Amino acid sequence: MLTEEEYYQFAHFTDALMTDQEIVELPKVWVVGGDGGIGDIGYQNTSKVMLQNRPNVKVLMLDTQVYSNTGGQNSDSTPMLGGNDMNVFGSATQGKSTEKKTVAETFLAGHGSPFVAQVSMANAPKLYRAILDGLEYRGTMFLQCFTTCQPEHGVADDMALFQAQRVRDSRGAPEFVFDPRKGESYQEALDIKGNPSIDLDWYETKSKVTNEPYRYTVAHWCVTEARFRNHLKKIKPEQAAKLISLDNMLVRVTQQDVVYRRYLSPEHRSFIPDFGVTIAFDQDGKSVYYAISRQLVMFCVERRKAWRLLQSKAGIVNREYQAQKAILADLDAGNISKDEFFAHAHEIMAERLGKPVFAKA
User: Fold this and answer.
1) Cα separation of 161 and 151, whole Å?
2) Domain residue spans in the chain?
3) Chain-centre distance of CA 129, in angstroms?
4) What is the pLDDT of residue 11?
């Protein structure tokens, strides 16, 4: 004869009396879907599942950054650029104006104690390690995994691995694992190892063409996908020499300049001239120059801000962020002239970091 308490526990399939080994052997319910179904239209339902934190529920969100099966509409996970078949681009607007929602990051707070990771095939060992750790975790697991949608992204069928690496390295979708078993502070529970140049804004690498150092931003990743083609105009080197380098522009602009629309004021230091900023990119064995849209510069600022917030949660001090704040404070105090700042912002940044000046990229 069952007692009322035993009846309740069995009827509700409670895990309260299960051992850790029984939890591991418990059959798992996998929820697999795209960023639209799980992180956009279905976000409230996903939020409820995460809060319940049942040990037999594991969620995998395949993040294609677009409604892949219904014609290419923007989702909350779509980058600020939009860039899909049904996205508006013209003289009045340059795409999706709202910031990208990283669904996995929303579950780092206010959702109880789930196991959360943003991983992809860019780092297969870390992907599998996160899956195994999440399966053993006595609670719900949520994995956000970037993956290409070849037709919508405009990439070849064999480029999924390369695009995953590019979006990670550019800070478009940084890797992280949040394991509540490690402690009750972000610094203990959040691991962002695996991302290159972990204490800086951008991945520092070298051009295979010129052997000069440059910083790999989300703008460089965007060059590799046809969905962003409206935001890039190929130009000649002599034309690029007359434009502002992206490295220089990014020292001038903060996220609050974007929020308060200061970037639209020609009198403000953060003014972003549309297609007045340039990057260089290794392509077909040579350096190719692009003028980039105002919206693409704003996307760089937004992704930089998101990366800085993630760094701070993990206890990583971003030396570039500290240097930028100091430089802008000196500009406001008159210690640096506006002309000097505009001409040499990226050089001033490099000097304060004790690094060589990056190429005009």
Assistant:
1) 16
2) 4-191, 203-353
3) 21
4) 80
- Mean per-residue pLDDT, 105-133: 95
How does DSSP assign 128-181, residue by residue?
A: HHHHHHHHHSSS-EEEEEE---HHHHT--TT-HHHHHHHHHHTTSS--EEE-GG
Q: When comparing pLDDT for 91 and 215, which is higher? A: 215
- Map tokens 């000196």 to a residue: 330
Tokens of 72: 């290419």
CA angle 262/267/271 to nearest 5° reads: 45
The structure tokens listed for 289 are 């120059």
Which residue has tokens 């990583």? Answer: 316
Q: Regarding beta strands 232-235 and 141-146, do their DSSP bridges make them parallel or antiparallel, or are they unpaired?
A: unpaired
Say yes or no: domain 4-191 is CATH 3.40.50.970: yes
Q: Residue 67 CB: number of other CB atoms within 10 A?
A: 23
Which residue in this structure is represented by tokens 């939009």?
A: 82
Residue 252 and residue 254: Cα distance in Å, rounded?
7
The length of the chain in residues reads: 361
Residue 338 has pLDDT above 80, yes or no: yes
163 CB neighbour count, 10 Å cutoff: 23
Q: Is the pLDDT of residue 86 over 70?
A: no
pTM value is: 0.92
Question: What is the residue-wise DSSP string for 80-139?
Answer: TT--STT---SSS--S--SPPP-HHHHTTSSS-S-EEEEE-GGGHHHHHHHHHHHHHSSS
- The answer to whether residues 278 and 243 touch, using CB atoms and an 8 Å cutoff, is yes
Tens digit of each residue's pLDDT (9 = 90 or more) over 249-304: 999 999 999 999 999 999 999 999 999 999 999 988 899 999 999 999 999 999 99
If you ran DSSP here, which 8-state letter would residue 283 be given? E
24-30-35 Cα angle (round to 5): 135
Strands 115-119, 203-206: pairing kind: unpaired
Residue 280: phi and psi, rounded to 5, are: -110, 145
Distance, CA of 321 to CA of 312 (rounded, Å): 11
Separation between Cα atoms, residue 157 and residue 120, nearest integer Å: 17
Residue 164 CA to residue 176 CA, distance in Å, equals: 14
